[in-house]
Design goal:
Distance between the termini: 16 Å
Shape: elongated
Radius of gyration: 36 Å
Structural class: mainly alpha
Strand content: 5-15%
Number of helices: 28
Largest sheet: 5 strands, mixed
Strand order of the largest sheet: 1-7-6-5-2
Helix content: 55-70%
């Protein structure tokens, strides 16, 4: 049972929550977050809001169950993680706490999902679930749906999707929009997929807005949040922590890539032909590519963060050096150096990547620049020493020495050429990096294209290893292409044999049954479950049969749409049977089109990892052999009510080329 289902089961009727869902907010002061530039500044135009308008601080407060002690505990954790967590949001003032949560949630796309997970991690599964937004929201939605449509005696508790349907029909679109947004953005990709049709409803889309679109399908909140904050967070201690986390994530992904590549090589080496290796190879290649892409995305964001931090540090070193220039150098020379330092801060001078080696070089040059300006020269040191001696002993000799040292210092003013040379070397280094990697402005304006412009330096060992791994993957893909060609040749021969067998089977069935093969005429609808065995034998002889278990379950059938059961069985005896016996993409597409017309799905009935009694329950004895009811047809009812839930469990008998139905028309209880 997933976390969402546990929450609904545990809270739908159990905690006495009476607060209800907060109404759709009418306020216009929802904080609009802005995307930050390379140095943490805001772009001119705001990006789409992360949150829908109904998610206000008050709405968040009403749909959580956090006491002040809980807020104090969470605020301490959030203050360590986010640099702009307000000082007054320490948990003592609930309104300030929820304003802070709302502000961060509207700035960072994945803050709220991570906030919900933090609640669970902080307070545990049982207590934490009661304090999360989702379960309490669904509980309130269920209560409201029960008011609109009371349950009949003995009727099972509806699921969330059924409650949403009830609310929508009643015109309570605001409540539906709130639940759809929570399921889409806070409860994981599976639930997002389940409610995706609701987002196509204009009434719901208008209330949810762009919020769901900002979430990536299949997202991992912790890594997606890391990439976003590395890209947009201003330079500072928190960005340094994020960069360190990114290094750890990259190391973990590097290990995963190495393991995935080893698994792929071993699998390919263990098979001489493509056919037995094909299915797993495609998954292994996909996993390897996903890991490498994720690693590249995090590493790329970390490179940008390091570049911003290092440029900020370089600017501080140079700025601290030129500040006292009017006191130690001629004004014109000081102004020139200041202008050159300011020029290095322009966006077109900031490299998108600032590697370790170049950073160390620039830092040494900045120190040389500082020494050349701030540290005293030989003449200045001599003047200081003469001044010290005269202060200790104001004799005529020491006075003369002081005047002599001062005259020498004035006659030979300190040269700024070493500082200018160091600054020129820094500018040259930054310019070379811009040529190799592009600028931070390029990254902010065209993030999708920056990866193609990056030319990796040879010393970056980790990326070189990734490139080597990808080259090996290309070699493996070339081998797969060769094996695929051989497989296609064998498949053509196999298809011809299968078609011939099918034609012979058709003729035999026609002779034995005394009628034309099934599918050539109009099949009348199934009128009653008691007619099903004879109806199948008359219209689909040799194609679909009922096992003993199916005959037994048919006696207690309660599914209300008998005709739909007949059409589903007919589909197995026609389009599905042709697809299995003749093969080919056209017949597969025809079968899928027929499924969509009936609003049915054909899916596995049991996962491959189920063992023992759980798997044995899906096996039947059939004509001296064991068959597994590994497939089933089902409707999209979203309920296990036997009156509305259709399930037809079946197996394909390869030897006899026919469908064996083992259970229908409801859920099989194991």
């Amino acid at each position: 049972m997933c976390r969402l289902d546990r929450a609904i089961v545990g809270l739908r009727r159990g905690d006495g929550f009476a607060g209800g869902l907060a109404p759709i907010a009418g306020e216009t002061d929802i904080a609009q977050s802005t995307a930050t530039g390379p140095n943490g500044g805001a772009h001119a135009s705001p990006r789409p809001s992360v949150l829908p308008a109904f998610v206000t601080p008050d709405w968040l407060a009403e749909n959580h169950h956090l006491m002040k002690a809980d807020m104090r505990r969470l605020s301490g954790q959030l203050r360590e993680e986010y640099p702009d967590w307000p000082a007054d949001a320490d948990g003592g003032d609930a309104a300030a706490f929820w304003r802070a949560v709302h502000a961060l949630a509207d700035r960072w796309t994945y803050f709220l999902p991570l906030f919900e997970e933090r609640i669970l991690a902080t307070f545990g599964l049982v207590k934490g679930t009661k304090k999360q937004l989702g379960p309490r929201l669904f509980h309130a939605a269920g209560d409201r749906a029960r008011v609109l449509r009371p349950l009949a005696p003995g009727e099972p508790e509806p699921r969330v999707m059924e409650d949403l349907e009830t609310l929508f029909v009643a015109g309570e679109h605001g409540l539906v929009a709130q639940a759809v947004w929570v399921l889409s953005c806070l409860e994981g990709p599976d639930n997002r997929y389940a409610v995706s049709p609701w987002l196509e409803q204009p009434e719901i889309d208008a209330l949810v807005g762009d919020a769901v679109g900002r979430m990536r399908p299949g997202w991992r909140p912790e890594r997606a949040d890391l990439v976003e904050r590395l890209t947009d967070e201003a330079a500072g201690p928190h960005l340094e922590k994020l960069a360190a986390r990114a290094a750890e994530e990259c190391a973990a992904l590097d290990a995963g890539i190495a393991t995935a590549w080893s698994t792929l090589r071993t699998h390919v080496a263990d098979h001489d032909s493509y056919d037995p290796a094909a299915e797993l190879v495609s998954f292994l290649l996909f996993d390897l590519g996903m890991l490498a892409d994720e690693r590249d995305e995090i590493a790329d964001a970390r490179d940008g963060a390091l570049a911003r931090m290092r440029h900020a540090a370089l600017g501080t070193l140079l700025g601290d050096a030129v500040d006292p220039l009017p006191d130690t150098a001629p004004g014109a020379a000081a102004d020139t150096l200041r202008e050159r330092v300011a020029a290095l801060a322009r966006d077109e001078m900031l490299p998108a990547v600032f590697p370790d080696a170049e950073w160390e070089t620039c830092r040494e040059l900045a120190e040389r620049f500082r020494v050349a300006i701030v540290e005293p020269g030989e003449k200045e040191l001599a003047l200081r020493e003469a001044s010290r001696r005269y202060g200790e002993d104001p004799s005529a000799a020491n006075l003369a020495a002081l005047h002599e040292a001062a005259a020498a210092e004035r006659a030979s003013p300190r040269s700024l050429e070493p500082a200018e040379a160091a600054l020129g070397a820094i500018a040259a280094c930054l310019g070379e990096l811009v040529g190799r990697f592009g600028t931070l402005a390029d990254r902010a304006g065209a993030a999708d294209g920056i990866a193609e412009k990056i030319k990796e330096p040879p010393e970056r060992g980790l990326r070189a290893e990734i490139a080597d791994a990808r080259a090996l993957v290309r070699d493996a893909e070339a081998r797969i292409v060769e094996l695929t060609a051989a497989l296609e040749a064998a498949a053509k021969e196999n298809d011809a044999l299968r078609q011939e067998r099918h034609r012979l089977g058709e003729r035999l069935a026609a002779l034995e049954g005394g009628s034309a093969p099934a599918g050539n005429g109009t099949v009348p609808p199934l009128a009653a479950y008691t007619d099903l065995p004879d109806w199948m034998e008359r219209h689909f002889p040799g194609r679909v049969v009922l096992a003993g278990r199916a005959l037994r379950t048919l006696k207690s059938a309660r599914f209300e749409d008998v005709a739909l059961v007949g059409r589903a069985v007919a589909l197995l005896g026609t389009a599905y049977h042709r697809m299995k016996t003749e093969g080919g993409m056209e017949l597969r597409e025809a079968f899928e089109d027929a499924l969509r017309e009936l609003k049915l799905q054909e899916t596995p009935s049991i996962s491959a990892d189920r063992q023992g009694k759980a798997r044995d329950g899906y096996e039947i004895d059939w004509e001296g052999k064991r068959l597994t009811l590994d497939r089933h047809l089902k409707n999209n009812s979203g309920t296990r009510d036997p009156r509305r839930c259709l399930r037809i469990y079946f197996a394909w008998d390869e030897d006899a080329a026919r469908v064996v139905i083992g259970h229908l028309p409801g859920h099989m209880r194991i």
